[in-house]
Each structure stands twice: as structure tokens, then as C-alpha cells.
Design a protein that fits this description.
The chain is an alpha/beta fold. It contains seven helices and 14 strands. One zinc ion binds at residues 10-11, 20, 61, 63-64, 157, 213. Residues 18-195 form the Metallo-beta-lactamase domain.
Length: 247
Amino acid sequence: MRLTVLGCAGSFPGPESPCSAYLVEADGFRLLVDFGPGSLSSLQRYAGLHAPDAILLTHLHCDHILDAVSYVVVRRYAPDGPYPALPVYAPGGAPDRLSAAYGDDGTVEDVYQFYALQPGTFPIGPFTVTVDRVNHPVETYGVRLEHDGRSLCYSADTAPCDALLRLAQNADVFLCEASYLDGVDNPPDLHLTGREAAETATKAEVGRLLLTHLVAAWGSEAHTLESAAGAYTGPLEVVRPGASYDI
Ligand SMILES: [Zn+2]
Ligand SMILES: [Zn+2]
């Protein structure tokens, strides 16, 4: 499978990146995981306006979902007529949340076919998908995607937790958030630091660690990388929009 980073800025768009959005492709099927503000631009640049065959939203914080609202226009008002409803796997509140954000007193359920996430394993296209609740203030799912013997784990937003450790176990690639800086007093049960992401990677024995969801305005990439490198000895980098990885 192939992972393409469309956006990786944490919490709000950064100077160099839209918010979270990752395209994962296998056997010609493309799953968009999260659809944060600005990433619709990257979708067109790196994949194509109609690239996604399905969408998975890990949680309903606005930095992970808002371009799914912009995308309603793309699907509903296409010059050649509306596109068929696109499958969206998301927490149960997604239809109401996206409809409210779109406004117009209507629903977006003509554009999206919603499936409510619950902890467990299920197929999406050629992928075997496992999701579990992670440690974040709203209903949030960490994700493990498997295809043809290879695996990708995406942390979503989370503080350290056992569910993340299970999802990441022996993953070939671990795409993990590192929002917070080490060495300061961070609020509990929200996000990971670079060191915490790396400690999870080490315990889970992953093949490669990709750090994401850094907040450029409040952090220091060099600081995060240095903290992470102190706790994980495998291949390690901070992702960028447009970066692509064969897994
Ligand atoms: Zn976030
Ligand atoms: Zn969040």
C-alpha cells in the first residue's frame, strides 16, 4: 500500500501545511483518512479532486473534518450532475456535525453514506481496518490498516494509552501524532510529545516512525525530533505535505 500525506499540521493549518489528511492506496482503491482544513487543495494537487473511494474520520474535531464540508459542493454540484454517495466511516455524530457545519438547514446525507465507527475489525475496499478508542477528550479512533501482509497504524489524536500500543504492534509504519513539546507541563489525556510517540513506537516494535500533527506556531520540529530520537532507534522523520511512502 501507499501512503500520501496531504496535510499534517496539528490543531490548525500551519504556514507550510493544511491540517490532517492522509491518502492510503492499494489495488487502485483510495481511502482518505481525515479531511482537515486546507487538505482539499492538497487532494487536487497530489491525487485528484475525485480520488477518494471512501473516507474515514478518526474524530470530529474541526482540524480533522472541515474539508469534508467543503467537499459537499464538489460532489453535489458537479457540472455533469451529482456524484454517488461516498462511504464515510466516522463517529456516530458525524452526519449531524457535518450537516450543521454546511448550514442551509439541510443534510449532507445525499453526498455521504455514513457508517458509525465502533471498536473492531472490518473491511474497507481491499483494506482490513481495525479501529479502537484512544485517549482524547472526544470519541476518537486510532486506526490500523492492513493489506497484503503489510500494516500502517495511525494514532489519530491521543495521549499515551494501551489501545494505541495494541494498534501499533509490529506495524511496518507508525504514523503518530507528536503535538506537544517534551519538558513542559502539558495537559493530560489529550496529545503525545515526541518522546511519548517514540516510546510507543519502541514498545510496539514498529518498523518506521513518522511523526505528524506538530503545531508549528507553538513548537519546534528540531526539539520534537531530538526528543523522539532519544526513545526510538529505528527510522524516524517528521512528515510533509506531498510526501509519499510505499509500505
Ligand atoms: Zn487534531
Ligand atoms: Zn483532536
